């Protein structure tokens, strides 16, 4: 049985006050209906770690370096993240792919770095509007997954979470319908099934793209949707908690 995971990706939005406010509210809500994770920007990870203390909230980072240490100005290594009890790292978010040139090869290499450090990689995939309008969404998603399917061992797949995020639904207010999302999640699971039944059964596949408290329950009730990767709505404590409580 796959647990529901609700993950808040704050993107480049935070302050000390906001981090303390949001995380205190999430901590005090004592959510037990799903697993909860938050992905603050790098400078707030230490504060986030101390604010959530021993609460069952998993801490995530929004990206990581391919490198382990050295002269890579501005980069952050996975070993540094693990010192702040970061348990999950986003890899291949569509903004990293489109704005910072994160290719499928880089996504594979970063995923391996994250797994080597004993963390979970949350690998993001999804098609653009043009790709969907051209009817190529399945092909795009399969291509984005191909290297991971071919290169990761069965054991490594145990530490991978997938997030299907149609680019046209990110930050636009236009959510994929539950049927559209379920159809793609089912397809992704069928690709995992080609690797092994165990990987297909155990890998969590999150949906991302304008998830909010008002639409979360319908999305999460789909058989192949195992939670959400939430952007904008994760910046509002009530909205995020509403998503966590959605059933
Ligand atoms: O990582 C989160 C996604 O990009 C979704 O963002 P959004 O909920 O603001 O559409």
TrEMBL record:
<feature type="binding site">
    <location>
        <position position="171"/>
    </location>
    <ligand>
        <name>substrate</name>
    </ligand>
</feature>
<keyword id="KW-0963">Cytoplasm</keyword>
<comment type="pathway">
    <text>Carbohydrate biosynthesis; gluconeogenesis.</text>
</comment>
<dbReference type="GO" id="GO:0006096">
    <property type="term" value="P:glycolytic process"/>
</dbReference>
<feature type="active site" description="Electrophile">
    <location>
        <position position="93"/>
    </location>
</feature>
<keyword id="KW-0324">Glycolysis</keyword>
<dbReference type="InterPro" id="IPR020861">
    <property type="entry name" value="Triosephosphate_isomerase_AS"/>
</dbReference>
<protein>
    <recommendedName>
        <fullName>Triosephosphate isomerase</fullName>
        <ecNumber>5.3.1.1</ecNumber>
    </recommendedName>
</protein>
<dbReference type="GO" id="GO:0046166">
    <property type="term" value="P:glyceraldehyde-3-phosphate biosynthetic process"/>
</dbReference>
<dbReference type="GO" id="GO:0006094">
    <property type="term" value="P:gluconeogenesis"/>
</dbReference>
<comment type="subunit">
    <text>Homodimer.</text>
</comment>
<dbReference type="InterPro" id="IPR035990">
    <property type="entry name" value="TIM_sf"/>
</dbReference>
<feature type="binding site">
    <location>
        <begin position="9"/>
        <end position="11"/>
    </location>
    <ligand>
        <name>substrate</name>
    </ligand>
</feature>
<dbReference type="InterPro" id="IPR000652">
    <property type="entry name" value="Triosephosphate_isomerase"/>
</dbReference>
<dbReference type="GO" id="GO:0019563">
    <property type="term" value="P:glycerol catabolic process"/>
</dbReference>
<dbReference type="InterPro" id="IPR022896">
    <property type="entry name" value="TrioseP_Isoase_bac/euk"/>
</dbReference>
<keyword id="KW-0413">Isomerase</keyword>
<feature type="binding site">
    <location>
        <position position="210"/>
    </location>
    <ligand>
        <name>substrate</name>
    </ligand>
</feature>
<feature type="binding site">
    <location>
        <begin position="231"/>
        <end position="232"/>
    </location>
    <ligand>
        <name>substrate</name>
    </ligand>
</feature>
<comment type="function">
    <text>Involved in the gluconeogenesis. Catalyzes stereospecifically the conversion of dihydroxyacetone phosphate (DHAP) to D-glyceraldehyde-3-phosphate (G3P).</text>
</comment>
<comment type="similarity">
    <text>Belongs to the triosephosphate isomerase family.</text>
</comment>
<comment type="pathway">
    <text>Carbohydrate degradation; glycolysis; D-glyceraldehyde 3-phosphate from glycerone phosphate: step 1/1.</text>
</comment>
<dbReference type="GO" id="GO:0005829">
    <property type="term" value="C:cytosol"/>
</dbReference>
<dbReference type="InterPro" id="IPR013785">
    <property type="entry name" value="Aldolase_TIM"/>
</dbReference>
<dbReference type="Pfam" id="PF00121">
    <property type="entry name" value="TIM"/>
</dbReference>
<keyword id="KW-0312">Gluconeogenesis</keyword>
<feature type="active site" description="Proton acceptor">
    <location>
        <position position="165"/>
    </location>
</feature>
<dbReference type="GO" id="GO:0004807">
    <property type="term" value="F:triose-phosphate isomerase activity"/>
</dbReference>
């Amino acid at each position: 049985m796959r647990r529901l995971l609700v993950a808040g990706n704050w993107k480049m939005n935070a302050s000390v006050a906001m981090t303390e406010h949001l995380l205190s509210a999430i901590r005090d809500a004592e959510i037990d209906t799903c697993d909860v994770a938050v992905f603050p920007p790098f400078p707030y990870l230490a504060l986030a770690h101390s604010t959530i203390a021993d609460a069952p909230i998993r801490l995530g980072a929004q990206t990581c370096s391919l490198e382990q240490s050295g002269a890579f100005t501005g980069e952050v290594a996975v070993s540094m993240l693990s010192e702040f009890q970061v348990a999950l790292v986003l890899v291949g978010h569509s903004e990293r792919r489109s704005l910072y040139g994160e290719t499928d090869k880089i996504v594979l290499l970063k995923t391996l770095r994250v797994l080597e450090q004993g963390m979970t990689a949350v690998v993001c995939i999804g098609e653009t509007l043009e790709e969907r309008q051209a009817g190529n969404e399945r092909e795009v998603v399969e291509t984005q997954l191909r290297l991971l399917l071919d290169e990761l061992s069965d054991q490594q797949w145990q530490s991978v979470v997938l997030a299907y995020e149609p680019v046209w639904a990110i930050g636009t207010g236009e959510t994929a319908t539950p049927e559209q999302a379920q159809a793609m999640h089912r397809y992704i699971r069928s690709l995992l099934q080609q690797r092994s039944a165990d990987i297909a059964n155990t890998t969590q596949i999150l949906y991302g793209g304008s998830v909010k408290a008002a639409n979360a329950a319908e999305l999460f009730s789909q058989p192949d949707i195992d939670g959400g990767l939430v952007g904008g709505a994760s910046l509002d404590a009530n909205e995020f908690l509403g998503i966590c409580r959605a059933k």
